[in-house]
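forwarding from the other thread:

> can someone predict this with fe (ii) ion?

sure thing
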Amino acid sequence: MAADPRTILLFNYYRDAELRGANLLLRLMSHLDDPDSQVKLSLHLADETRHAWLWTKRITDLGGEPAKVADGYQARIGLRVVPRTLIDILALTVVVEERSYQRYTEHAARSGTDPETLEVLREVSKDEKWHIAWIKGKLEEMAAAGGGVERMNEALERYRAIDRQVYGELLAKERAAFG
Ligand SMILES: [Fe+2]
Ligand SMILES: [Fe+2]
């Protein structure tokens, strides 16, 4: 039996967010040269691409197909912010990771979610937790070292406001689709 096309579409949005998240990490990789960051970024990047694969597999297992998403979370964020400094990129990564964790845990709490999807949600949420922790730690460390704590707080605040706006739009779209 083919799955609800709206569910496939939602999973394509999740997949798109993971792929674009990986892209942001690749940018960080060229900025953070220290060996410890390179090790963590390598694992982090491997996680995000695996998350994209898990959603891809869930989509195809349900009889759907991976599809291009033009107006997903990061594309909408990208229309509103252009992070220029390392502090900016790290701050944006923190906000994006926090949203991804919140989105997945919120979905997992919904009634009627099938066990296979729940398994994927659990798997990805577990990784997002350490992603937030280490990127936040790195951001705070770099901000403190470079006298940029104020700039960090300002960036976090600005990105969180944009994130709330973008997430509100996506949620409205989702609610309209699912009725
Ligand atoms: Fe992820
Ligand atoms: Fe993540």
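The mean pLDDT is 94. thats all i got for now
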